[in-house]
Amino acid sequence: MRQIKIAPSILAYDLGNLREGLEIASRGGADQIHLDVIDGRFAPNITFGPGTIKALRPRSKIKFDTHLMISDPRLYVDRFIEAGSDLLTFQAEALDAAVFDLLHAVVHSKKKEMGLALKPETQLPAWAEERLDRLSTLLLLTVNPGFSGQKMDVSVFPKIEKLSRLVAEKGLEIDIEVDGGIDEENVHEVVARGGNVLVAGAGVYGRPDPVRAIGGLRERAATAAEGRGGS
Hints:
The chain is an alpha/beta fold. The protein has helices spanning 18-27, 50-56, 77-83, 97-109, 126-129, 157-169, 187-192, 202-205, 210-227; strands at 5-8, 32-38, 63-69, 87-91, 113-118, 137-141, 175-179, 197-200.
């Protein structure tokens, strides 16, 4: 079974003290930090850009999982790589086959990982299914992109199951990352359906003890993974 990974979403922390947010993730034993980049066009919010990521990079060795919710990632992919991103995930809705191929060539040439994200209502496009072997991550949003703290849309659960099975049937080592409203109350359901990278914003940073919250998520996820019987 794919390794369970916890990815705190730093957008849910105090934006004036992101360094501390990184330290919390490290102390809690998080596997990666999720960085939501929104341009105000693809989704109704503006967060931060490559300059912020570059400033944070020297502060931590944790994997930088950069989720690019931007309308034309071709214009900025090089800058986010140079800033220190380790995994760059692009929204399928902003791509087609040709743009995907261009972005993959850039990311691969820099020896970075590439992911593809889907909004709750978006199904995997045919062109993307044909290129799954070029990805390290499929990111399934369980909220509409834009803001932290939203309630999970459980109607996405069948899609998590479907794509987890598809990846397994193809024999691919692709992480199924799930982002949106994850907390200790629902993490078991997410993992039971095949999610293994768990993005948590308010579910970590909104808790009284966020370091402990990371451990709590991991414990519940591990229990669910055991229940899946290694599938």
